[in-house]
């Protein structure tokens, strides 16, 4: 069905952006122009490069991958089979995409004397950091294989036509599909789940499905198209429809976890694993829903998925605090110590930008574009690191002997420079290793461990992805 059949198209004239003062935080202090400056700044790229380049000192590619920052701002690492391993390499591939696809746009934005890594240097780092990740495509014990593979392997295929990345993507899709159950009509998310309140340890008795799993469907849809495999498409579509049925409340908030009966397909229980309570709305779960349903709409063109994504986005927007950065759970009691979640903000912003893209030149489209920019504006204003990093070159070898053709004697020529990251003059010498702060992995009361108020690798990934989406849509100039 054509999109226009159910949507009223109203073309409008551009209106100025307005960012009112709220609760002592002036969102006007960060204009859309400054948002784009933050998204594409040298400092943002330098932060990723500084962490990534350290791995070149090792004789072997990495087996540990950044996840979150400690109290000193340093990354804490996870093993390569942890679910977040794909996000840091994915961030590097987003920078490579800027260098390849959007090089002219990026060149126009930077000062003449600004230095950025060469595309070949970025490509080498990308391949170095992903050399050990291909093996994750064989994992059939988790739905997270999509998160582990897709952020970097899809770009490796799109940008460089890397055959190993293609094979890894297809293999990962089949590993994910192996978790589909024909009775429950969805993919199993977790085999086990243990908190200080409940535990599920027997996968024959419980079939746990989390809202996060919507983000892994993109891998199935992609592989279905690339390999003409309708079975993968059908699995992804069935999972999306089951999630639509079981995870969405009447008020358009979302449940985090649903336990489905494998004999009847009925819901046994709905509860949370990372939110405030079973009946609350965990902010990142809501954001996963927005982006996941929009990705599903992209592949299926089923208007019900667009509709639910808009409903989830409207709930997200309506429940933001006055300063615009979501608390970790929309129903958690708000106190001075109540943590935020910038990862939820950035995931939701990406989803809203996709809504804008699909609605095209309409009043409704403009609304979601404005909301996505305002959301990023608030995150930048409150949680973008204040330190500024920049690239500079340092002469490694001052001069080298040169013997030009036709000369009698050797001459000397300029030596070799190396690229390094330094702090801009007047900024904090100790920089947090993530681009953003203010993220929350898990603040659930009964979680075995609680993390909040830190940097987080996938908050940065979706921050960079948002910037690349802006470039892809040609919005980098029109929103300022």
UniProtKB/TrEMBL annotation:
<dbReference type="GO" id="GO:0052757">
    <property type="term" value="F:chondroitin hydrolase activity"/>
</dbReference>
<comment type="similarity">
    <text>Belongs to the glycosyl hydrolase 88 family.</text>
</comment>
<dbReference type="InterPro" id="IPR012341">
    <property type="entry name" value="6hp_glycosidase-like_sf"/>
</dbReference>
<dbReference type="InterPro" id="IPR008928">
    <property type="entry name" value="6-hairpin_glycosidase_sf"/>
</dbReference>
<dbReference type="InterPro" id="IPR052369">
    <property type="entry name" value="UG_Glycosaminoglycan_Hydrolase"/>
</dbReference>
<keyword id="KW-0378">Hydrolase</keyword>
<dbReference type="GO" id="GO:0000272">
    <property type="term" value="P:polysaccharide catabolic process"/>
</dbReference>
<protein>
    <submittedName>
        <fullName>Uncharacterized protein</fullName>
    </submittedName>
</protein>
């Amino acid at each position: 069905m054509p999109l226009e059949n159910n949507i009223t198209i109203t073309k409008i004239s551009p209106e100025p952006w307005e960012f009112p003062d709220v609760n002592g935080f002036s969102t006007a202090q960060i204009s859309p122009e400054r948002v784009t400056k933050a998204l594409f700044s040298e400092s943002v790229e330098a932060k990723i490069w500084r962490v990534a380049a350290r791995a070149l000192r090792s004789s072997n590619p990495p087996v540990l991958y950044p996840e979150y920052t400690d109290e000193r701002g340093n990354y804490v690492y996870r093993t390569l089979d942890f679910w977040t391993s794909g996000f840091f390499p994915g961030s590097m591939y987003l920078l490579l995409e800027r260098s390849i696809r959007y090089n002219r746009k990026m060149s126009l934005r930077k000062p003449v004397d600004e230095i950025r890594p060469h595309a070949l240097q970025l490509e080498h780092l990308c391949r170095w950091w992903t050399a050990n990740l291909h093996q994750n495509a064989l994992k059939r014990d988790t739905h997270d294989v999509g998160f582990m593979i897709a952020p970097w392997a899809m770009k490796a295929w799109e940008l460089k036509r890397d055959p190993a990345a293609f094979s890894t993507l297809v293999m990962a899709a089949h590993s994910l599909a192996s978790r589909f159950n024909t009775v429950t009509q969805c993919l199993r998310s977790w085999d086990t789940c243990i908190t200080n309140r409940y535990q599920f340890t027997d996968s024959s008795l419980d079939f746990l499905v989390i809202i996060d799993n919507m983000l892994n469907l993109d891998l199935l849809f992609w592989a279905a198209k690339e390999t003409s495999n309708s079975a993968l498409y059908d699995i992804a579509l069935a999972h999306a429809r089951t999630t639509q049925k079981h995870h969405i409340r009447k008020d358009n908030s979302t449940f985090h976890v649903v336990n489905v009966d494998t004999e009847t397909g009925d819901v046994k229980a709905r509860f949370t694993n990372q939110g405030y309570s079973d009946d609350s709305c965990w902010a990142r779960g809501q954001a996963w829903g927005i982006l996941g349903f929009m990705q599903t709409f992209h592949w299926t063109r089923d208007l019900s998925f667009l509709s639910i994504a808009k409903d989830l986005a409207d709930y997200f927007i309506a429940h933001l605090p006055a300063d615009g950065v979501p608390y970790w759970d929309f129903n958690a009691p708000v106190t001075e110590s109540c943590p935020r979640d910038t990862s939820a903000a950035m995931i939701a912003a990406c989803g809203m930008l996709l809504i804008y893209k699909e609605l095209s030149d309409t009043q409704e489209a403009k609304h979601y574009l404005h909301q996505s920019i305002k959301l990023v504006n608030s995150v930048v204003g409150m949680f973008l690191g204040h330190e500024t990093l920049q690239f500079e070159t340092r002469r490694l070898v001052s001069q080298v002997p040169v013997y030009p053709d036709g000369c009698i004697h050797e001459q000397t020529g300029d030596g070799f420079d190396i690229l390094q990251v330094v702090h801009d003059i007047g900024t904090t010498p100790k920089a947090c290793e993530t681009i953003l702060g203010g993220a929350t992995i898990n603040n659930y009361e009964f979680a075995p461990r609680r993390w909040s108020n830190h940097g987080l690798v996938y908050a940065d990934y979706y921050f960079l992805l948002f910037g690349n989406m802006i470039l892809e849509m040609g919005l980098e100039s029109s929103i300022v």
